[in-house]
Amino acid sequence: MPLPNIPFNSAEGSDRDLYALLKKMGLAVPDTEEELDHLLHLLEDQHIPIPDDLPTPKEILAHGFIILETPLDESMDPSIEEELQQAAREGGDISADVRKRMEEDRNKSEDEQDDEQSNRLPNR
Amino acid sequence: MELADQPSPLTEYADDDLLVFMSMNKEDPETAEKAFNEFYKRYKGIVYPVVYKFCAECTKNVDELAKIIFNNAFFNAYQYAGSFSAKGETKQEVIKKRIIGWMVQIVRTEIKNQFSSQYDREKEQEAYAAMSKSAAAPSSPPSPKEIVVTRAFEQIPKDRDREIFYTYWFFYEETPGGNAKRLPDDVYENLARRYNTTRENIRQIISRCKKLVKDYIAQNTKI
Predict the structure, then answer these.
(1) For chain A: N or C, fewer Cβ within 10 A?
(2) Domain coordinates of chain B in residue numbers?
(3) Region of residue B178 (left: phi > 0; alpha: psi -120 to 50; beta: else)
(4) By the 8 A CB rule, do A1 and B135 touch?
């Protein structure tokens, strides 16, 4: 399907234009039947295999809605590390955002330690 | 024996009939579950590739996320089956396409729900009603402009930034002027938590990626 003639003739091309292009390419969720057809054609070509261990209907009804517990990216953001290192070197302030993340990480770590300790306690 | 493996007495019913049975899950849960079993058999092979494709854009941890979204999309369909309307259509081919469109909107909702605490599932499903109609389009090789857009995304140097930028478009809503509305605060917060970074970094990454991609497209497409 040819893309519409979207005039990206300046660096200020609108978000709407970019979103339209992404939908036409199957990179954003379709809003029209035409975009849906195009997405389905793309998927036919991609032959994505269906795993054997998908949740069954019975499991789906038992689970209900699930929220992913783990981060999508486990690695530490380099920019946060950089800010922490810079603050350590220069004695500068840490931004509120990074401070909040540090507190969250500390609480998470403390919770994990508490869990480990409680697991080691003998039964009373 | 799992429910999916059991012979279903509802095989002769049309897809929209199954949704009607599913919508009666409070009054007649047994029939609703049988209908859900049959609906799952018919649509899992269509829904999973859609789920996988969009999850693969958000994360390298695609298998886990895709299974969660798949689970939630089908559970959502079971819970809110009554929100689908065939609008008087009787051709099964057309109804099937509409059900797929409805499920795709549910998939979007469920991906967004992983990044937000405030989503209204029923409201989101109404979005499908606004899906405009047009003729089916034939498949074709990528056009030069599609290739340029693909390359524009390849200019984003970090995988993490690209994943965040793709995820951003699930939340896209526009102002009357055609530009993006600001994301709700809780979405920034959840994106930051999901991608192990700060809210401010999420803002900067989205802004930087948008400029980079638009600049690349502008420089490489001459109309």
Answers:
(1) C
(2) 3-130, 144-220
(3) left
(4) no
Residue B165 and residue A7 in contact, taking contact as beta carbons nearer than 8 Å? no
**B163, A60 contact by CB (below 8 A):** no
- B114 contacts in A (CB within 8 Å)? 67-68
**Coil, strand or helix: which one is A81?**
helix
For residue B186, CA distances in Å to A105, B103, B106 come to 19, 25, 20
User: How confident is the model over B55-76, as pLDDT tens digits?
Assistant: 998 888 899 999 999 999 999 9
Query: Residue A20 belongs to what domain range?
Result: 1-51
Asked if residue A3 is part of any domain, the answer here is yes
Q: Is residue A56 part of a domain?
A: no
- Cα B197 → chain centroid: 24
Dmax over CA atoms of chain B, in Å, equals: 60
Mutation for B interface: A32, A36, A69, A98, most B CBs within 10 A: A36
Report whether pLDDT(B27) > 90.
yes
ipTM for the assembly: 0.81
Collapsing DSSP to helix, strand or coil, A46 comes out as helix
Chain B residues 41-70 within an 8 A CB cutoff of chain A: 44-46, 48-50, 52-54, 57-61, 63-65, 67-68, 70
Q: Is A58 inside any structural domain?
A: no
> Is the model's pLDDT at B46 over the cut of 70?
yes
B113 shares contact with chain A (CB less than 8 Å):
yes
